[in-house]
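Appendix B, example 12.
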Amino acid sequence: MTEYVNVQASETLDQGELVAFLKSRFPEKTKLVERTVVKGTECVEVRVPSGSPEFEEIREFIDARRKQGLHGFTKFTIGWHLRKYTKAELQHAEVLRLTISSHFEPCGEECGTVYETLCKECNWCRQMSDLILDLRRVPQRKDISETIAWIEWIVSSKFVRAFAENSLTGAEFRPIFEFKNPIKQSSEWHQLIVSGKAGALAEKTKLGRDPFSPTGVSWRCSLGHAMVTNFLSEIYVHRDAWDGSDIATTSDLFGPGRNLLRPSPLILISQRMYRVIQEAGLAGFSYEVAHLT
């Protein structure tokens, strides 16, 4: 595994000093992020190996400004880890974390799906109706995607067939109804409901605000439902908490739930499911090695 740190800086977030530093110090590695919140401002991104001299130089620059209490450096997270694996490493992992890479809007709640909010602080919720979506907006070439609500996972019929034909466990598939015709059930798209349980993250999982603040988390729900954090290491879960399902979710929830956004768990899959996905040629996600401990 090769680990990198992606550093993103935006003038919109009062990080002009960091933008200028990255552009001058790492001109060949600095890429302009095309979409910015405010027209006329710059947002740039640099990728450096974790623990490299380049990373340490950036860390010292950021740390100095955080000690000064500068708003753009203390208010926002800066950077995240990116892990690259060989095919052999993925094939030998006992479990893997699956991250859905395709997103779309509007979310179900905007289309008439009913939710019960269970926590006013973190927006944790329970879905009370079938999922209703504008299916024209679903990424057509992806076999799994999620809405901007983070908790609505949509899979193709190809995904459902591969799951059933290989007798995989830990999920059920519910109908999705069309926003323009709410009594019409989709034949191509299904809602993925993960029933498999992976338990809470093990203590070996390192959490932090970002790679430059490796202690604590950015925010926790006072009732213990959810947190906002970066994963500074690979994911570890307790072996005796995993129920043996081929797909499972953590009991820990993540994300700053508010308005239409809901905190969501991490998705973990077995090696058997990973191989099924590869053989079926399913698309729409990325993987990281995870661990049972």
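The CA atoms of residues 116 and 126 lie 5 Å apart. The first helix runs from residue 16 to 25.
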